[in-house]
TrEMBL record:
Organism field: Antrihabitans cavernicola
GO molecular function: DNA binding
Protein name: ComEA family DNA-binding protein
Region (Disordered): 14-43, 179-215
Pfam families: HHH_3 (PF12836), SLBB (PF10531)
Keyword Ion transport in annotation: no
Amino acid sequence: MGSIEERERIRSRLDAIRGEQDEPVAERDDVGAPWLDEQGERRGADWLPERLRGARLNPGRRSAAMIAAVGVVAAIIAGIAVFRDRPQAQAVPPLPVVHVAQNDSTDPPKTAAVASAADAELVVSVVGLVRSAGLVRLPPGARIADALAAAGGAQDGADLISLNMAQRVADGDQIVVAPPGGAPPPARGPAPAPGAAKPGKVSLNNATEQDLDGLPGVGPVTAAAIVAWRTTNGKFTDIEQLGEVDGIGPGRLAKLRDLVGL
């Protein structure tokens, strides 16, 4: 009897233990609060499936720390990318300084140019057998032929053979057109002045380049320089002005002083 009762007691105890194991045990996270379960159930009751309504997301402390670390690293990488791609200001090279030149040459230079042109103009007297005897104005470098043309040309019967039509004229010259066989024309040029060319001397104001080239120590280059000085500065007024011509030094001037005149 004792053994039967003991067996029944053991069987009843085993059945009680087996019954407790069959009952569902509600698991609860150590970290979560009870009100989270109720709030989650209320939010998910409408659209979550029945089997997922009791599910909850709880990564735990370690996983939350890892997620935060990943977020910090991502933020640092994004900041570096933004800093690297930011627009950089380009240095602008300095602009060149522009200086505006003031044009002070208005009326005075024009007046000076007109005066210079007037000074360069040649005034020559043409007399004798010409159609319009008198004073004619010629440009620099004009010749006797130009002077006769400015005076209307020679009349019939004028002796043109005695005139060198290619000879250059100087300011203040006088050209006499005589009849054939008439008296030789007087010396061209203004009235003799101190230092004027004497017979046998070469006139600095009337001589051509060929005439000057015949002087001792004067070649074609120096002769052209003498004529150029005469064209630029006007007539010679002193023999010593030969020293202002390119190529004529004191020694050459001493040799020419007795061979030339005005």
